[in-house]
Amino acid sequence: MTFYKILDFKYQGRCFTAFRNKLGYQTFLEYQNDGNKRKYHYIDQVTYMKLYDMFVKKKPSFYDDGDKKRRGYRFIPKMISLAGALIILSGCGVNNDKDANLWPSDIFDKNEVIVTDDYEVYEIVKAVNLLTADGLELYWNEDNVTFDEVREALASNKNIDDYLADYINDFIDHLEMNMPNVNLACFINNVRNLRSKSVGDLGMLRSCGSSTATACFLADTTTIYYNKDRLNDENFEYIMYHEIGHMLLNGYKEVRGYTTFRHYTTATNTGFMVEEGLDTILIEDVIGVSLKDVSYRLPANYDRILMAATNYTLADYVNGNHLDFEKRIKEYLGEDYNVDNLPFLFEYQKYNIRDNKDVEMEDSEFHDLYEVVAGAFFKSHAELMTSKEEIVHLYDELIEEITHDVYSKNESYTFDFTGLKDGLRRVLELENISHDLWPEEAMLTTFFTVNPPKEDYHLNK
Questions:
Q1: Where are the beta strands (DSSP E) in 168-233?
Q2: Are residues 130 and 49 located together in one domain of the fold?
Q3: Is 258 inside any structural domain?
Q4: Are residues 304 and 236 in the same domain?
Q5: 386 is in which domain, residue-wise?
Q6: Fewer CB atoms < 10 Å away: N or C end of the chain?
Q7: Contact 41/15 with Cβ under 8 angstroms?
Q8: What are the residues whose beta carbons fall under 8 Å from the beta carbon of 404, sequence distance 6 or more?
Q9: Three-state SS at 17
Q10: Which candidate, 252, 308, 256, places its Cα nearest to that of 278?
């Protein structure tokens, strides 16, 4: 199995390279530079697990207060993907047909693996990975759900306290107004089964893995926890809507002895920060509540630029998975860009911008991310590249869109936008823009610094 380099970084002063394969699995090797040669070697188990916990594992597998039904949120997809990969590699009973005969009567037909565009069945672990909203409608028997039906489900659920119910009702009203045709199949299943739990810092630590968390939605138990000790935090309102937003396309349901689940990221178990950015845009554009927090601001800015260029919509987000977004970007830009690394670079950059003292990454390691974003932006504005001055203006506009409301946590952070310049140069070549119009190197900003906020914003998640 082939692994591809994501980036280099330092952890506690030691040098490592992160790799990924096409199934989304990541691994790490330590390296030492010997002159012009790099020597890789395996790392000890303790260090490996620390890196795995930091960069790969997304949600803690803690039991909450007495609830023993936890399925390990976002761990089942990884287990299933591994089981499926082993079966596929061994050549056992893979059915790659995309025909209607797999929909839906044959979904539980005891084949080892069934793979289609909309779902994957893994008999070995009795699980069904629903990749799209179409799969939900078929296998959860949720077809053409109306907003009134969701309201009725909310009113009937006595496990949701009035405080959270008010937020959900408001979310439904705004969603109906701004996205009247949105697919509600996953949302209504979550609303029917949702529980709310108001806890303090300790309760958030036990349930969500962080004592400073404001709120979290755990799809595996269909529970929203919110922190009663942080009701006055600046981002509290936003985070509550943000977690409700995840209910649109993340959920579990037991069907005929199988665990069926739907997550935006389960196609390869990557793309978590891509999803967080898209959910941020959903809340800002549909609910009208803005994020004042560095956590998801930068990925949201990237997502917004890529959405505008590729015509990827919030409806596409709710109905599909992150591979659909990547495919759209690849189709728009062609095969010359390293789009496959995009979701991983989204993830790793948050450790830089949030000033993690144990981790050091040169911003130049995000060159491929900047090049993809620049390629999409400049291609979509190619008709405006009529002079050096206009091209420089577009370049500065792109930097402004990337860094909008972005700040560092404790110390100044400097972006190395060499990748933006390379992305611009590639578009100028592909669009056959006259060399007479190409800006000189000195006209384009390479290094851009953001500073800590004047106020001490709390990192909510």
A1: 195-199, 215-218, 223-227
A2: no
A3: yes
A4: no
A5: 295-450
A6: N
A7: no
A8: 297, 301
A9: strand
A10: 308
Task: Answer whether residue 276 shows pLDDT above 50.
Answer: yes
The SS3 call for residue 223 is: strand
Q: How many domains does the chain have?
A: 3
Label residues 231-252 b or e (16+ Cβ within 10 Å = b): eebebbbbbbbbbbbbbbbbbb
Q: Are residues 321 and 214 in the same domain?
A: no
Are 23 and 85 contacting, i.e. CB atoms less than 8 angstroms apart? yes
Percent of the chain with pLDDT over 90: 57
Contact 310, 262 (CB under 8 A): no
Residue 263 is inside which H or E element, if any? none
Pairing, β 37-41 against β 94-95 = unpaired
CB distance 444 to 421 below 8 Å: yes
Separation between Cα atoms, residue 18 and residue 32, nearest integer Å? 14
Quick one: pLDDT at residue 65?
45
> Which range has highest mean pLDDT (167-181, 355-369, 438-452)?
167-181
User: Cα separation of 372 and 378, whole Å?
Assistant: 10
Choice among 143-147, 151-155, 405-409, 438-442 with the minimum mean pLDDT: 405-409
Structure tokens at 212: 């400073």
Q: Which amino acid is at 320?
A: G
Q: Which residues does residue 34 pair with via DSSP β-bridges, in sequence order?
A: 37
**Token pair of 145 as six digits:** 């759900």
- Helix, coil or strand: residue 5: strand
Confidence of residue 40 (pLDDT cuts 50, 70, 90): very high
How far is it, in rounded angstroms, from Cα 196 to Cα 394? 46
- Judge whether 190 lies within some domain: yes
DSSP annotation of 287 reads I
Check: CB of residue 226 under 8 Å from CB of residue 213.
no
Q: Residue 410 corresponds to which tokens in the numbers above?
A: 């404790």
The model's pLDDT over 205-228, given as tens digits with 9 standing for 90+, comes to 988 888 888 999 999 899 999 999
Apex CA 454: angle with CA 451 and CA 455, to 5°? 125
